[in-house]
Amino acid sequence: MNLPPVAIAWFGAMILFGVGLYGLLVVRNLIKLVVALQILAKAAMLAFVAAGYAQQQMGLAQSMIALIIVADTVVAVIALALAVQVRRRYGTLDVRQLTALRG
Amino acid sequence: MVVHPFLWLILIPLASAPLVYLAGRLGGSAVARGLALLALLLTGAPLIITAQDLISQATLTVALGMVQLKFDGLSLLLAVVALGLGACASVFSIPYMAGELGEEKYYAALLGMIGFIIGLGCAADLFNLWVWFEAMAVSSYMLVAFYRDQPASLEAGVKYLVQSAVGSVLVLLGIAAVFGETGRLTLNHTTTATTGLLAAGALMTVGFGVKAALVPLHTWLPDAHAQAPSGISAMLSGVVIEAGLIALLRAISPVLGEDSTARFGQLLLLFAVLNMTLGNVLALKQTQVKRMLAFSSLGHVGYMVLGFGAAAYTGQLAAAQGSMFHLLTHGLMKGLAFLSAGALLYALYVANGTHGPLTVQDLNGASQRYPLVALTLSVAVLGLAGLPPLAGFMSKWQIFVGGVQADDPLLVVLVVFAALNSVLSLAYYAPLVNALYRRVPSEAVQHGKAVSWAMMAPLVILSALVVVLGVWPALVDGLSGPAARALLAGWQ
User: Fold this and answer.
1) What ipTM does the predicted assembly reach?
2) 3.40.50.300, 3.40.50.1370, 3.30.9.10, 1.10.287.3510: which CATH number matches A5-97?
């Protein structure tokens, strides 16, 4: 089988996306949840690589990916800071225990 | 290099945000407050200059290297709402947030959020739009979870962050699909819709839909809007979800082909029905005031989406203009409602050292001790319900007239449905007003503290605007008309 590189990259992005989404659905630990979010973001980055390669615009794609990495890191930092505070107030990182708000 | 003044509209809030933080760290929170207000006041000057320039030109453009920023009627509307409501929320927050831990961070993040929203309106390509959108989201995560010693705030923050982050990844995948399919990211061109582009459209609709609180994606909203500090609740409900909606409507334009604009309109109409129904029905059973107002935001997003959907479905400009008008009036009314509720929350609970929640029963007889706040809260909720001579009536009326004028049986049915929904919403707004004017004050009111003038000033200004726009709606035609034309221009 001889797949074109673009197809492999798209396929990889889809797999990463699936893994991240599955993680989000089953994981209960807040830190692992952040890891799942990171995997999802990596899927988007790989999709940009594929798109840039398909359009012969790797330079533009790379500059966009650099920005995504920055934005993604900021979100991860805030998520981890929230996790620290949740651990302090609730004494646990289990998201099932976060049940102050209902209805 | 000659830079058009509209760039200052973005630069002043963004540059002053870190300055406010540093000043607060070094000089104390009074300096931070003063500097934040000064920055917002200064931003008013480029806003006025830009608005005057926009009378003679449809769009203003600035190119920073490869990145283009474009200022049109829609950007102006978003900038006016963000800056106006932001200034009101900042003044309100001076007494409300005084003495809170990390007060300087609050003002810095608020200024940043205002700058990012104005920038979002100016983005001229898909990726740039995402960057502004993500930056706005990041600043709002920090503000939602601001009370970090409150478990409920943390929970709301976690829910908001996780859902928004997934939405943002979906948007990115959609952008990647557009880029891979067409090789360009500009926000205006027509194509015949291929399968890849339709998939991109679906991804972006879901992704931005999380932020715009389209109904199956709304579950974070009541928590986040109810748990944030009241000034931020006003910003989130009055501007941020609308900014998400505008981002969706702008981002979808490169994906829409000749025939798919009408189909996208049908999809929006479906969301409108879901939002109106679910928002109003769920608001009925809420006992906490801020949570009820948050659910009512869902319904109001529904009215806006109805107008935009009708515009996409039939190409009717009047419906889109009605929605733009409603975006403005909803910002004013919901901002006023959250700030008034916040003033009562502060007087009854925060000043006494607890964080509420403020329930409808607590409001009993509040008019006797807080006549002005009770009046402004009543103006806000009656305006939201759509009672004439208030602004909410005029903007809903404009959407409905626009929908009926399109002369399509489906739209007529939907307009009737929306009008009935509007009546249904009275069922939860009216008890609020009723409670405020009861004769026997509740226990919370009896132990309540005074409300300072700095909190009341924004309430008076906003309620005056709500009344004036209700009596004289043509006053803002110059804002809503160009905004609607700018939006529809992207779709053609």
Assistant:
1) 0.94
2) 1.10.287.3510
